[in-house]
Amino acid sequence: MKLNKEIKIGFLAIIGIMMSVFSYNYLKGINLFEKNRKFKVTYSKVDGLSVSNPVTLNGFKIGKVHKINFNRENTRELIVDIIIENDVIFPKTSTAELYETGLIGGKAIAIIPDYKNDSTIALDGDFLKGVLKPGLTELVNQILPQVQLQLESVMQSAEVVFENVNKLFDEETKTELKSSIKEFSLLTQSLSNTSQKVSDLIEKSAPGIERTINDLKDTSNNLKSITDSVSKKDISDLTNNLNELVINLNKVSKNLNNSNGTMGMLIQDKLIYENLEKATNELNILIEDVKLNPSRYINFSVFGKKNKDFKKNN
């Protein structure tokens, strides 16, 4: 059976239309051969969000943004159509969080499942609750006004401080400050000169200091050699001699304390002590009388005559 030309043309036209539709949807990111689910999300604003931006769940891409339009019933809202290309399921009360993907301002939608509060599975065509996650730009825009107010307050305080400083530093104060700075400069220069002189003195005295250190080192070595030369035997002999000396001193002390010996009797006998003391006193009187009257005890004459005074006195 042969097909006429009209049937062939119609068949080719249908195939061309189907391929055009498939190509159009493929370029839009829709695969007609896969079973996709569509959801709608309402946002107050979608800065940076565009068609074909990713839709993720736990960081994994499960779909893309299909279409963005205003809500016909409320133009303050935007309705974003998303397509889920994955068989993953999540509750109907889950939220679609709009967040920034990077510093350059790209946006994506993250599905935040709500497994705790609801177990109803979201179906094709359901509305999901949209949530805006503040990005870096929004956070900066929120912080900047506060920072600006604080900077203005600081600038005002700094202006008041500068005015008070200008009032405080009059011409007389400025002159005194200049004088103080000049004196400080002179003091610094003097300290520098003194430091240089001390450095020169140390440099000149370095050889003498080195010799002194060497002498001390030699003295230490000599003392060490003397200490090393004293043997343990010499120390032992010296200790034994000292012990013998102590023993002899103890014996002498015992003999002195013993009244039977001669020295003991002299020390402990009171009568002997009194006789000695009496004899000493009489001897002192005799010596004093000899000094005062030497002629009584010494008979000396050039002509051999006797001293008459001495006879008379006798």
Total number of helices = 8
Q: Quick one: how many beta strands?
A: 7
Distance, first to last CA: 209 Å
How would you sum up the major sheet?
7 strands, mixed, barrel
- Overall structural class, as computed from helix and strand content, comes to alpha/beta
CATH topology (level 3) name of the domain at 35-133: Elongation Factor Tu (Ef-tu), domain 3
CATH class of the domain at 35-133: Mainly Beta
Strand order of the largest sheet: 1-4-3-2-6-5-7
Helix content estimate: 55-70%
In short:
It contains 8 helices and 7 strands.
Question: Tags for this entry?
Answer:
single chain, 314 residues, alpha/beta, Elongation Factor Tu (Ef-tu), domain 3, 7-stranded mixed barrel, 15% strand, disordered C terminus
Q: How is this structure best described in words?
A:
This protein is of the alpha/beta class and 314 residues long. Among the domains are: 35-133, Beta Barrel (Elongation Factor Tu (Ef-tu), domain 3); 232-293, no CATH class. The protein has helices at residues 5-27, 136-168, 171-229, 232-257, 262-268, 270-292, 294-297, 308-313; strands spanning 37-43, 54-57, 60-70, 78-84, 95-100, 107-112, 127-132. Strands 1-4-3-2-6-5-7 form a seven-stranded mixed β-barrel. Strand 3 (60-70) and strand 4 (78-84) form a beta hairpin. The longest helix has 59 residues, at 171-229. It is elongated and about 195 Å long. It starts with a helix and ends with a helix.
